[in-house]
Amino acid sequence: MPVRVSVVVRTRNRPEFVRRALADIAAQHFDDYEVIVVDDGDTTDLVERIVRESDIARIRVIRTEEPRGRCRAANAGIRAAEGEFVVLHDDDDRWHPDFLARTVERLDVDTEAAGVMTSTAIVYERRDGVRWREVDRVPFWDGMQRISLSQLLEINRAVPISFLYRRRLHDELGGYDESLDAVEDWEFYLRVLPRHPIAFLAGEPLAYWVQRPDATDAEANSTVGLAHEHERDDLVVRDRELAAWVRGNGLGLPLYLAQLERQIVDRLSERMQQTVRDEVRRIVGEELDARAPIGRRWRRWRSGGRRNDRS
Questions:
Q1: Rounded Cα distance, 126 and 124, in Å
Q2: What gap in Å lies between CA 44 and CA 50, rounded to an integer?
Q3: Alpha carbon distance 95, 119 (integer Å)
Q4: Residues 6+ apart with CB under 8 A from 13
Q5: β partners of residue 95
Q6: Each residue of 120-140: pLDDT tens digit?
Q7: Relative to the CA of 193, which of 15, 28, 146, 217 has its CA 20 to 30 Å away?
């Protein structure tokens, strides 16, 4: 029987997180889903054993012979997906138990939307013995009410764990960009939004983006572990789109905007330097007054006398 949702779990050498992710999915109040675990180059059979022990009825494992990266892993799972909707549930992230129920309900009502994103919380974890323990939770883009293309052009404001979308988008737009090692989700959103609206469920966070700032190697969160790749691929995407625009429209506007940016930066730098100089004078003056009260009285008397002379 067809399923409504295909949940793609990407993982590599992190059996502890896979076990937790499958338990998180099994706790959903919505149960019309399948799970596709993409085991990206793992050298053991631990993931398959964890899958057999899970409480999920419809679940499959796709194994690659060698690591192929986040984007290829996502695409492998999506190609195998049979659901009307898809969502990437990375092995270390989590959901509110109502995530699937509420996002599917929204897309059933809002038939024009290509997908739906939810408010998200960043969950910070620290290792406590053999387990990871939550130590803090903060909003991710607190107060956000909608998904805006103009804001996404500036910086990514969504993460895969928060995004349920229609599987047919990949038939129209293709898969995740396998030339990238990071920011593949952001690049995909930038292809979707000029063509289709994305709905947003504000309010209580339904998705939990888990981060472990102190973790290293396989346990590190991708934002930390792939920080260099995020910075590099962000520029790759921007330069590629700028080059496409220049080929069709010429260099005129980008050259003007680059000059304007330089002028703004120069003016801000001048103002900052003047502010620093003024603050230094104020601090030095206060210090001199504190250390030399006689000189302070003399300066005040002189200042008052000059005012009286002018009057």
A1: 7
A2: 12
A3: 11
A4: 41, 42, 43, 218
A5: 207
A6: 999 999 988 878 899 999 999
A7: 28
